[in-house]
Write a sequence for this structure.
C-alpha cells in the first residue's frame, strides 16, 4: 500500500510538471536559434545605455503633426518586424534578405506595406522576403547582421539598403566575429529558460501579447534627448515642435537633421571595406549581393524644406539639397559597386519623378516614407533586379 501511494504521488508530480511545461512552452514560444537576436545589433535606448528583448514585442511610432494614426511594429521571435523566420526555406520559393535601417523596417507605415512586403508581392510571391530593418542603426550593425544572418538563413539574394544618413565621416567596422549558431536545448525546462533570459535581457512577451510600448518615450526619460538637453535644443525649433518632441509625439532626434545632412552629403562617403565584406559574406553562402541607395527627401525635392526649417532654425533659406552637389554618394556607391561586380540599384530618380508629379512620398514632419513610398520602392527593386 505504501509503494502504491508513493507511485501515485510520483505520477501526480510528474503530471503536474508535464502540464506546467506544456503551458509554459505554449505561452512562451522560442525561435530555433538561441543566440541570434536583434539585441546583438542594436541598442534600444539609442544612447548606448543598454538593451533588452524586442522579441515578440509591439512597439509604437507616432508623429501627431502628420497623422493621428499610431503605427505598431509587431516583432517576431528574433526581434524583427516580420512574421516568424525559419531556418529551412519554404518550398518552391526563393528567399531575399533586406538589411537596412528604419526605412527597411518601415517606420510610419503599417506592417504589410514595408519595402520587403512590397518586393514579395511584386515577385508574385515567388520570393520570401525577410525584413532585417534595424531602426536607428548604421552600417556597422548592417554588416554584423549580414555576417550572422546570411550564413544562417541562406538567402538567394541579400539587399544592403543604404539610406542617405548612413554615410558619414567614420569608416564602418567590418565584423570581427561570426555567429556560431546555438539551438535551444529542447530538454531544458521552459521555466528555467524564461528565468535565464529575463535575468539577462529583461521581460519577455507571451503568445497573447497585446500591450505596446513607445519606441520613443516622453520626457523625463533618458532615451529622449530633451530630458537632459532641452534648453539647448529649444533654441533650434519652434515652440510647437518643442512640445511635440518632449511628449514624443514627433521624433525628438530630428533637431537640426538637415544641417547634418547638408554637411555629410557634399562630402565623399567613407565606406572602408563595407562593400568588399558584403560581397565576401554573400559569395561564401551562394547569395547574390545587391546594394540599394535610398535618398533623403531633401535630395529629391524642396517641398519638405519649410517643415525641416521648423526644427532647424539656423538652416539658410538659400540652400537646396536637390542639386548635383548633394548627389555624390549615389555616384560613389555606383562606381564602387561596379568595380566589385555588385549589382547596384539607385532609387533616387524613381522617387524624384514622383515628387515632381506632386506625389509626395515622405511625411511632412517625420522624415520617413508613407506606405505608397515604401510600396513603390519594393516594386522598383523587383523590377530592376537582375533575375539571372
Amino acid at each position: 500500500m505504501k509503494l502504491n501511494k508513493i507511485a501515485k504521488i510520483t505520477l501526480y508530480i510528474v503530471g503536474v510538471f508535464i502540464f506546467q511545461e506544456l503551458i509554459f512552452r505554449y505561452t512562451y514560444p522560442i525561435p530555433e536559434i538561441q543566440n541570434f537576436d536583434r539585441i546583438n545589433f542594436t541598442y534600444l535606448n539609442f544612447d548606448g545605455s543598454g538593451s533588452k528583448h524586442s522579441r515578440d514585442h509591439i512597439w509604437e511610432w507616432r508623429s501627431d503633426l502628420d497623422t493621428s494614426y499610431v503605427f505598431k511594429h509587431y516583432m517576431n521571435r528574433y526581434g524583427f518586424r516580420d512574421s516568424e523566420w525559419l531556418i529551412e526555406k519554404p518550398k518552391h520559393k526563393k528567399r531575399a534578405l533586406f538589411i537596412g535601417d528604419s526605412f527597411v523596417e518601415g517606420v510610419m507605415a503599417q506592417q504589410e506595406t514595408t519595402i520587403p512586403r512590397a518586393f514579395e508581392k511584386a515577385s508574385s510571391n515567388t520570393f520570401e522576403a525577410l525584413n532585417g530593418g534595424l531602426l536607428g542603426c548604421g552600417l556597422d550593425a548592417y554588416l554584423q547582421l549580414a555576417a550572422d544572418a546570411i550564413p544562417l538563413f541562406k538567402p538567394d539574394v541579400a539587399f544592403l539598403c543604404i539610406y542617405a544618413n548612413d554615410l558619414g565621416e567614420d569608416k564602418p567596422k567590418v565584423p570581427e566575429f561570426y555567429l556560431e549558431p546555438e539551438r535551444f536545448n529542447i530538454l531544458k525546462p521552459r521555466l528555467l529558460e524564461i528565468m535565464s533570459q529575463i535575468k539577462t535581457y529583461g521581460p519577455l512577451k507571451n503568445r497573447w501579447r497585446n500591450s505596446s510600448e513607445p519606441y520613443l518615450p516622453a520626457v523625463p526619460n533618458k532615451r529622449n534627448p530633451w530630458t537632459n538637453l532641452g534648453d539647448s535644443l529649444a533654441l533650434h525649433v519652434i515652440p510647437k515642435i518643442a512640445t511635440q518632441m518632449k511628449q514624443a509625439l514627433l521624433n525628438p532626434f530630428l533637431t537640426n537633421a538637415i544641417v547634418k545632412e547638408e554637411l555629410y552629403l557634399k562630402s565623399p562617403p567613407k565606406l572602408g571595406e563595407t562593400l568588399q565584406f558584403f560581397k565576401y559574406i554573400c559569395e561564401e553562402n551562394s547569395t547574390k549581393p545587391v546594394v540599394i541607395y535610398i535618398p533623403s527627401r531633401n535630395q529629391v525635392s524642396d517641398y519638405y524644406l519649410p517643415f525641416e526649417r521648423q526644427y532647424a532654425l539656423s538652416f539658410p533659406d538659400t540652400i537646396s539639397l536637390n542639386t548635383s552637389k548633394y548627389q555624390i554618394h549615389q555616384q560613389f556607391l555606383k562606381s564602387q559597386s561596379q568595380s566589385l561586380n555588385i549589382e547596384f540599384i539607385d532609387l533616387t530618380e524613381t522617387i524624384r519623378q514622383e515628387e515632381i508629379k506632386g506625389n509626395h512620398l515622405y511625411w511632412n514632419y517625420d522624415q520617413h516614407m508613407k506606405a505608397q513610398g515604401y510600396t513603390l520602392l519594393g516594386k522598383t527593386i523587383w523590377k530592376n533586379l537582375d533575375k539571372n
